[in-house]
């Protein structure tokens, strides 16, 4: 774990998390420009349109990612970042 | 006395009690600028949530969902992306390098008074724009809600802000923001539960919403934005969050880096709860219970009081005068709290980054004079904003808000990131880069559709979008880089 933490320090770690952070926005813009044709137009889930459900999942993903960032590398908050 | 006014007066009384409590505890500039650095992670998470979820964000996003459907989600996803980037890149260095203002962070690596003065200048310009947008919103919305005239609504906001900031400083502002964030979360939860209950279930709610909308809510592209405008607007919302002084100085109110980082995650969670409910329940409920209802329409078929009233019409539909009063009062309190935060950001910048640096002997710790400057700046900036809001009462609030976020993204964000992460940034590079970002964003906005066509009456815009961040942010970075390189080479040559 310590070895992993040493590898994933500084800009490499920040770069990976940044890519994952921007990914939902990238997907949303693709969808809003119809770059993912009819991908989500097939159904409703529990009565909720899949597009809305998908955006909700993207939002939850963001929160989990931020929480994961703190949880996985707790000592980075003081030492390496 | 009408229900909205009674609920509003109760809320204002509560905020004045908080201000009285804070005023008795606020001693010295640390209390006034950053609440003494004693705000906990949970409290700061709530305050950041309150700062971000402004009246414009709630009313505007519900209105956009009403007309553009699921495309409104750009206002829901972007702030969460901004918060995550804030956590990864900015929160720690901000807390470590900053003491009272953003100027402290810049001056930590660029030890020169002109950087502080520039930071104060940009903080005051873009905060003032955002305050004007909030005051225009307060005046136009609440002249309808409370049946008072526009000028009186603005005057009430100004009077309350002066009391909060002048007597209670950042401590009062933070606690007003915390109370407001709590009320906002409860209000959105209440609206959600009542909406689902009235529809008879989530499935039924979406059947009604899609019937009113006229097509499937699975359809993207309702806003009709080009890919350039979409990416540029998203960039303004994301990078604007990393450049807005009233949001950034919140991370100076916590005791350490760990609390700063935890508060980002807490605010991301709370913002996602509020925005998630707006997306999944309240937005569709607006379509289901407001669209096409004669009680909420003018004779020409427009929404009574304008699109910003959709949320309040929904409250009326779900809970009558009482719920209308509660939601109207909570919305008004969001404006008060956000304007108070912005005023603290401007006042602390003027006192710390201008007066403290430019006085005859900077080593002289004259706290009393600094606090006088802080209070005078609070009064002057809020009065100037009020005068501007009277002149701009018919302007589009969303446009003014986007302008403030765009300037924050193009001015503060590039310089802050470079000052933290690039050791070769020079004082001249920072100032030229910031000025280039500021003027390029203003210039492109003037050439865009809102100013060039709607305000100046030309037939077509020179710049095709109202959102210039995709161009102005790279300009700021490039100019800062080139000037720093030239400046650095010159210094080496001279030495």
SSE layout and pairings?
The complex is a heterodimer of chains A (81) and B (495).
Chain A: H1 2-7, H2 10-32, E1 44-45, E2 48-49, H3 50-72
Chain B: H1 3-25, H2 28-34, H3 41-52, H4 55-68, H5 74-97, H6 102-109, H7 113-145, H8 150-199, H9 202-213, H10 227-241, H11 245-248, H12 257-289, H13 310-358, H14 367-391, H15 397-421, H16 427-447, H17 449-455, H18 469-494
Number of domains of chain B: 1
Most extensive chain interface and residues per partner: A-B, 38 and 51 residues
Q: What is the mean predicted local confidence, pLDDT of chain A? A: 75
Roughly what percent helix of chain B? over 70%
Based on CA atoms alone, the radius of gyration of chain B comes out at 22 Å
Low-confidence stretches of chain A: 76-81
> How many helices of chain B?
18
CATH homologous superfamily identity of chain B: Sodium/glucose cotransporter
How much of the sequence lies in strands of chain B comes to under 5%
| Beta-strand fraction estimate of chain A | under 5%
Q: What general outline of chain A do the C-alpha atoms trace?
A: elongated
Cross-sheet strand order for the largest sheet of chain A = 1-2
C-alpha Rg of chain A (nearest Å):
17 Å
The description of the largest β-sheet of chain B is: none
Quaternary organisation: heterodimer
Number of strands of chain B: 0
Largest sheet of chain A: 2 strands, antiparallel
Average predicted local confidence, pLDDT of chain B: 86
Describe this structure in a few short sentences.
The complex is a heterodimer of chains A (81) and B (495). Chain A is mainly alpha-helical.
């Amino acid at each position: 774990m310590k070895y992993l933490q040493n590898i994933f320090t500084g800009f490499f770690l920040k770069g990976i998390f940044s890519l994952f952070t921007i990914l939902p926005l990238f997907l949303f813009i693709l969808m809003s420009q119809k770059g993912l044709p009819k991908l989500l137009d097939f159904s409703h889930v529990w009565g909720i349109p899949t597009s809305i459900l998908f955006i909700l999942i993207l939002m939850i993903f963001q929160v989990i990612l931020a929480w994961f960032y703190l949880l996985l590398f707790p000592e980075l908050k003081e030492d390496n970042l | 006395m009408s229900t909205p006014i009674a609920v509003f007066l109760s809320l204002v009384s509560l905020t004045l009690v908080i201000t009285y409590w804070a005023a008795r505890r606020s001693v010295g500039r640390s209390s006034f600028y950053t609440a003494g650095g004693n705000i906990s992670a949970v409290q700061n998470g709530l305050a950041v949530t309150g700062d971000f979820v402004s009246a414009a964000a709630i009313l505007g996003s519900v209105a956009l969902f009403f007309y553009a459907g699921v495309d409104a989600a750009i206002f829901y996803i972007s702030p969460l992306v901004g918060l995550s980037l804030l956590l990864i890149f900015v929160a720690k260095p901000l807390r470590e390098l900053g003491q009272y203002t953003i100027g402290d962070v810049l001056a930590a690596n660029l030890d020169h008074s002109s950087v502080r003065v520039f930071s104060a200048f940009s903080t005051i310009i873009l905060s003032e724009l955002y305050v004007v947008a909030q005051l225009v919103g307060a005046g136009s919305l609440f002249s309808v809600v409370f049946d008072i005239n526009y000028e009186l609504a603005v005057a009430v906001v100004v009077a309350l802000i002066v009391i909060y900031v002048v007597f209670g400083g950042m401590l009062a502002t933070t606690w007003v923001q915390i109370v407001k964030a709590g009320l906002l979360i409860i209000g959105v939860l209440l609206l959600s539960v009542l909406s689902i209950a009235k529809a008879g279930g989530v499935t039924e709610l979406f059947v009604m919403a899609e019937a009113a909308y006229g097509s499937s809510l699975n359809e993207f592209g309702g806003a009709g934005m080009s890919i350039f405008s979409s990416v540029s607007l998203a960039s303004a919302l994301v990078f604007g969050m990393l450049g807005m002084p009233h949001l950034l100085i919140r991370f100076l109110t916590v005791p350490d880096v760990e609390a700063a980082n935890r508060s980002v995650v807490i605010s991301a969670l709370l913002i996602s709860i509020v925005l998630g409910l707006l997306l999944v329940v309240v937005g569709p409920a607006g379509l289901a219970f407001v669209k096409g209802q004669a009680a909420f329409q003018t004779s020409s078929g427009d929404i009574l009081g304008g699109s910003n009233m959709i949320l309040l019409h929904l409250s009326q539909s779900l809970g009558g005068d009482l719920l209308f009063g509660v939601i109207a009062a909570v919305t008004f309190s969001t404006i008060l709290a956000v304007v108070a935060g912005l005023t603290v950001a401007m006042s602390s910048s003027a006192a710390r980054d201008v007066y403290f640096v430019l006085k005859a002997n900077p080593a002289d710790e004259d706290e009393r004079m600094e606090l006088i400057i802080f209070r005078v700046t609070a009064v002057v900036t809020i009065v100037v904003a009020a005068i501007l809001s009277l002149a701009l009462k018919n302007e589009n609030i969303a446009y003014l808000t986007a302008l403030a976020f765009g300037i924050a993204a193009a001015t503060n964000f590039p310089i802050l990131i470079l000052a933290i992460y690039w050791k070769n940034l020079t004082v001249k590079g920072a100032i030229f880069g910031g000025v280039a970002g500021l003027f390029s964003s203003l210039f492109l906005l003037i050439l865009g559709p809102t100013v060039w066509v709607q305000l100046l009456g030309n037939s077509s815009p020179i710049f095709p979008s109202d959102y210039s961040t995709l161009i102005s942010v790279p300009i700021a970075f490039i100019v800062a880089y080139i000037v720093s390189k030239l400046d650095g080479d010159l210094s080496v040559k001279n030495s």
